[in-house]
Amino acid sequence: MRSHRSGPQGPAVARPGWLALARVRALAWGAAGIAGAMLAACGGSSGGGSAAALPGAAGAPAAVASAPPPSSASTLSLAAQVGQKMFFDKNLSGSGTMSCASCHDPAHAHAPANDLSVQLGGAHMDQAGLRAVPSLRYKDITPPYADLLDNPDGISVPGPGGGFTADGRADTLAAQARIPLLDPIEMANASSADVVKKLQAADYAPLVAKAFGDKVFDDSDAAFASALKALQAYQLEDNSFHPYSSKFDKYASNKIGGTLTPAETRGLKVFTNPNTGNCASCHYQGAGLNGSSALFTDFSYEAISVPRNAGIAANNDLKYFDMGVCGPLRTDHAPAGPNAANSFCGMFKAPTLRNVATRGAFFHNGVMHSLEQVVRFYNTRDTQPELWYPTVGGTPKAKNDPGFPTYGLVTTQYTGGKVQKYDDLPAAYASNIDTQLPMDGRAAGSAPPMSEQDISDLICFLNILSDADTQPATPAKPGACTN
Ligand code: HEC
Ligand code: HEC
To answer: What is the 409 CA–ligand 2 centroid distance (Å)?
Structure first.
């Protein structure tokens, strides 16, 4: 299942320049050769962690929709109808208060309603998560993970790609659903049999029998497998998981309402320009796998070395590193020993950027909380690393120099000391870090790839990737995205 080049890519939406763009990435990878790509593309970054007591983390997740949006049911298969009931069923948790929708709220593009780095869960709703909760939208085309997945751009060399979760450890949506149901820090059911018992007692048990047969509850393992398939069917079939209702979709199909403003048009150029944003080289917007297009991901894994999030409880243990594909949550690509060579350490999935402007926490560890911060991180990780990573051994200045930026994760200026760049990946794996623009490893103090205008335009563009039923986390300033 891993080589669906869907035909040499006329970008699904034929806009000049996209093919050229895809080529740039191919060149970048080609230069390193396949082995190089395997190494360079695995990178690593920041760690997961558990949700910690962050401001606002008190207790249960924010109130979310407890029922699906109206409209959807009639076209769903029986299995998907069961999945829909399950998705909103709080009884399917150890605490009795948490459903899939508690973390994946349909009113927030199937992502959390709050901006916490990680959510609380568990039998008593007091266990901090290890990673930020992703949106569940536009995941239906995701192929299973492979170390050498063909890149959907049809040109880049194969590399790690596909799969569900930030490290690709689940091959299907059904396999993925097992994780939250049984994880003691999430829905915290005691066992799969425990889940099945709750299903059997649910008011929709007759629907389960109708979908999977009268004997469905006779064999607990088979019943659990059917339940996982039901959740998968719901996510695959229900339009709310892939509405394609953004302004970008209207633009791409020449529909009314799809005319980009000058700012959005410039932002699209920054997004695809290999010399500035270069975002599209990983968040690929052309024709993808299985007839898809414009998913804004090529399903690949890279190490971009997001800063460590001290707000995640697991990170209190300084020996704990969430290294993505090489573990510890994923276990089949683990290093042979501490610091043994491993090209997968630090790699995380390049997620779709659809609905990204609706999010309150970014990257696998949720360390950033605004889109502007994310874009500025891409722009200045290398040129001003002191804004993103801690400085040790220096003296904090009593007063920052005029003009010292306040948008970084570090807002204190230091005299002397050393910046701990890439602080969430053991030094042994630093060579795994990707070196494509906009983070090409250029020297500290040199000019960043994007101008202030580029940044503002790019954010305007990212905002048009939001579905019609969503709200932006940070509304644009009036007029900012017009001219
Ligand atoms: C406590 C919060 C929480 C609950 C409840 C929860 N999830 Fe998630 N979900 C997460 C987190 C965190 C991740 C990212 C996991 C990772 O990267 O390892 C995730 C990832 C996923 C993914 C993978 C998405 C991707 O981008 O690959 C799917 C699919 C998913 N969840 C479905 C579900 C379903 C179905 C349920 C209910 C059975 C559910 N989740 C319940 C927190 C939650
Ligand atoms: C080399 C590949 C690559 C390039 C180039 C790239 N990204 Fe990413 N992007 C990633 C990966 C990998 C992640 C996930 C990293 C993590 O979770 O630690 C990511 C995550 C993100 C996220 C967080 C999404 C979320 O749901 O948390 C945003 C936003 C984002 N990228 C925007 C951009 C923009 C804008 C650009 C261009 C300026 C860009 N990216 C360029 C690979 C890339």
So the answer is: 17
